[in-house]
Structure formats: structure tokens, C-alpha cells
Specification:
The protein has 159 residues and is an alpha+beta fold. It has one domain (2-149): START domain (Alpha-D-Glucose-1,6-Bisphosphate, Chain A, domain 4, 2-Layer Sandwich), CATH 3.30.530.20. The chain has helices at residues 13-20, 23-26, 122-143, and strands spanning 2-9, 33-39, 42-51, 54-68, 73-82, 88-100, 103-114, 157-158. It has an eight-stranded mixed beta sheet with strand order 1-7-6-5-4-3-2-8. β6 (88-100) and β7 (103-114) form a beta hairpin. It starts with a strand and ends with a strand. 17% of the residues are buried.
């Protein structure tokens, strides 16, 4: 299923790019996400999400497929397995930044594939949950790293 979201931040595209492509720095801003380790270009962690009455926790990896700084476009591939073995999630996330006055308009296109209990809720519910999580992520992002707060939680253990 394809999900499309947009948001605007009060930071230049260059600043926004450096923040959004630093997964170690932004992982604490994503509700339910915990980055556990980084090995080379592979990021490993856990994401916990509630969809309707079901809470699922996925353990997996994320890697950048593309990082085009000049075009301000990044493509991230994430794969996870539900920790109780009841399903899988896979996403290809394309982020594009465009200057917008004194800030940046961010477009996030997600090609999401889910199996297991979470998949039963369908596009409408999953889209709503995705938009809610992204909204909370942006609020956290703007109140911490985009405000110049350089304090970040402990770094993951390098492998």
C-alpha cells in the first residue's frame, strides 16, 4: 500500500537534510522506535506500533538505498519481523525536500507491505496511524533537533 504524507519545518533544506539523514539522531523522535545498533550502513532496531486494538513490535533493519544531497532526495529500505512471529513489515520510504520560504516542505512517500494481524485493519486505519505517528515525529523533531537541542539519548552500540 502506498502512503503519502507531507509536512513543513522552519529550517533550511540543508539543515533539514542533515537532520533527516542522521538516523541515530532522529530515531528517538519517532514514537515507538528504538535504535539498538549500527553496523556500517545498516541500522538495527525495534519499532512498536498500535493499530486499533493490536500492538505489534517489529525487529529489523534499515538501510539507505539512495542519498542524493544535491536533489535533497533519500530512499530508505526498512524490513522487520514481528517479534511474536505473527507477521512482517517492509517499507521503502522516499523523502524529498523542497525549499518553502524560510523553511522546507518535506514529502514522504511510503510503499508499505504488512502481513499478520496488523494487515487486517486495511488502508484507512493504517494510513491514519501513519499520519498520527508522522505528526508526533515532526513535533518531537521540531522541539529538539531542529531547535538546536544537541542532547541526544545514548548512542546505539556499534557492532
Amino acid at each position: 500500500m502506498d502512503l503519502s504524507n507531507e509536512f513543513r519545518v522552519d529550517a533550511s533544506p540543508a539543515v533539514t537534510w542533515s537532520v533527516l539523514t542522521d538516523l541515530e539522531r532522529i530515531a528517538p523522535c519517532l514514537p515507538g522506535a528504538q535504535l539498538q545498533e549500527v553496523e556500517g550502513d545498516e541500522y538495527r532496531g525495534i519499532v512498536k506500533v498500535k493499530v486499533g486494538p493490536v500492538t505489534a513490535q517489529y525487529k529489523g533493519t534499515a538501510t539507505f538505498l539512495e542519498r542524493d544531497e544535491a536533489a535533497h532526495r533519500a530512499v530508505l529500505k526498512a524490513d522487520g519481523r514481528e517479534t511474536r512471529g505473527q507477521g512482517n513489515a517492509s517499507a521503502t520510504i522516499t523523502v524529498t525536500l523542497v525549499p518553502d520560504g524560510t523553511g522546507t516542505q518535506v514529502s514522504v512517500l511510503t510503499d508499505l507491505r504488512i502481513t499478520g494481524k496488523v494487515a487486517q485493519f486495511g488502508r484507512g486505519v493504517i494510513s491514519d496511524v501513519s499520519a498520527n505517528l508522522l505528526g508526533r515525529f515532526v513535533e518531537s523533531l521540531e522541539s529538539t533537533v531542529l531547535r538546536g537541542d544537541t542532547t541526544t539519548p545514548a548512542s546505539p552500540t556499534p557492532a
